[in-house]
Write a structure and sequence with these properties.
- About 75% of the residues lie in helices and about 0% in strands.
- By secondary structure, it is mainly α.
- It has a single domain (about 15-145), classed as Orthogonal Bundle (TerB-like).
- The longest helix has 21 residues, at about 65-85.
Length: about 150
Amino acid sequence: MGFMNFCKKLLPASISPEKQYGYAIVAAMALVASADGVLEEEEAETAIKVIDNTKEIKKHLTTEEAHKAFLLYTTELMQSVNTEKTRFDIAVDILLQKIPNVEKEEWKHNIIQIAENMAESDGFVHEEEKKMIEKISAALWQSYKSYHPGI
């Protein structure tokens, strides 16, 4: 799939708010897993396990839909980073644009919690992962400060 088709393939145009939420969770996980520009096999395996065991995803997406989305997102992110850094940044921004479609405040907090859990899954939260979670928060609330008052 070409880079220009990436944004068209991210999510179907007309899906339920619940499916949008499910895809937003998977997108956040892909962004955190890819935050440093490298998707290690262990990170991908951990993400798949988290997807398989996260009730919030399973309520709204089939396992196949979630796995396919994660693979699509991470593949494009990794292909773009291998091409050039600005293309990786563009791919991140395109994926972040899909996240604000989440309707409920509770869902937004769940996305951040799952992204934080993903970042902590290897026992250490890397600086790039922290920055990516800040970007996800900013996308969800249009301002990181609205999620973390006092920053």
